[in-house]
Specification:
The protein is about 60% helix and about 5% strand. It has about 450 residues and is mostly helical. Among the domains are: about 130 residues, Glutaredoxin, CATH 3.40.30; about 130 residues. A hairpin with a 4-residue loop joins β4 and β5. The N terminus is likely disordered.
Amino acid sequence: MFALASLLALTACASRPATSTSTSTPTSTPTSTPTPTPPPIAFLENDYPRALSEARARGVPLFVDAWAPWCHTCLSMRSYVFPDAAMRRFSTRFVWLAVDTERDESAPLVSKLGVRVLPTLYVIDPSNEKAVVAWPGSLTATELAGLLEDAEDATKHRNAGGEAAAALLRGNQASASGNVREAIAAYRSALSTAPAGWPRRALAIDSLVTKLSEDRQLAACVSTAVDEAPRMQAGTALADVLRTAMGCAEDAAASAPERARLGEIAEQGERVAGDLSQPILADDRSDLYDYVVAALREVGRKDDARRVAGAWAAFLEDQASKAPSPAARAVFDAHRVLAYVAIGHPERAVPMLEQSERDFPDDYNPAARLGTAYLEMRRYDDALAASRRALAKAYGPRKLRLWMLEADIDEAKGDVASAKQALRDALVFANTVPLTGGYPKLREAIEKRLAKMR
């Protein structure tokens, strides 16, 4: 299609040589064929060999979206970012692959890529199958476009951004390979050599703080975030840095000075979450609200936590009312449950979840979230019925979470025998499916819980 359009454009613009005649004749104005609009992004689903083969044949990078059906951030990317018109210019410059990490057949690729966070967005050089980017989390369409430009340069072995850009690329490659310490050093190098106004600075800070957290360098995680956040431009990176810093501060020892800064970071997080001019996805804003509420509770500011939770719930209701489709509206279901629980009104989640269960009869998530809401409401029989509907529809290792929910409900009812059986069922199932990412630790947690109950 593109070759034909180019040929038409060339022939239309090629004018004939002027000829000398005794009679003057009017000349027509040459016309040109408009450049065709690129098609929307089309993902291949769960077929890495085919996607890799196509990328090699076309000589373009391979983009991989590692996602799961329960991951609200993954669904946010699918509803609000990948379909964005700003992404169309990349539709033919990459091969696009979506990998449902919960499926058994995805386990080898999930292990190969080292998926630990969902979503994780990879760009793979098809010539050697090495990831040049492994981005954990979400981005706006504009931010993702910048990341894709850098990744495209990396796969083509171009470096147009100078020393800082080269260091950022080294950090991304080290991160994608699981070399956390090497990535940290590279990101620090990028920041130390970056010129004033470097457009990738926020991205480098976000990546550095994320890796410091992953390496359990909690003091450095908090201090870097506190020092850098006030100077960061508005956007997803700032929200990420504040969230990560709150997590690091909460994990620090009670006597550590970093922990004493949790309230300060939470206040800054509240300001960013409440500032609607911040160019971040609604799901990321909601996630920041979630962290702020938890941090305020952690420092004993329960009234402030409830106040922020009220603003959080109102924001989510507004976003859900504006959603362009049922799928886009359901992106906010998970966080709306959390927000309603935080303000002490879990019953407000029931109508929306019942609607989602009607809209998506094959999806286990609405029923599972109803189980959680009913548990908070102490409607235990309804909670059990909902959790069992979810289990009947679910697949893959996520079912372990659903058995744990069932055990929570049984324990709340005082039925310890049934709670034990739910946990035993979970462990039996765990031996039949590949466990990747954080699921081995979840299995260990189930084993420990069952052992204590015995």
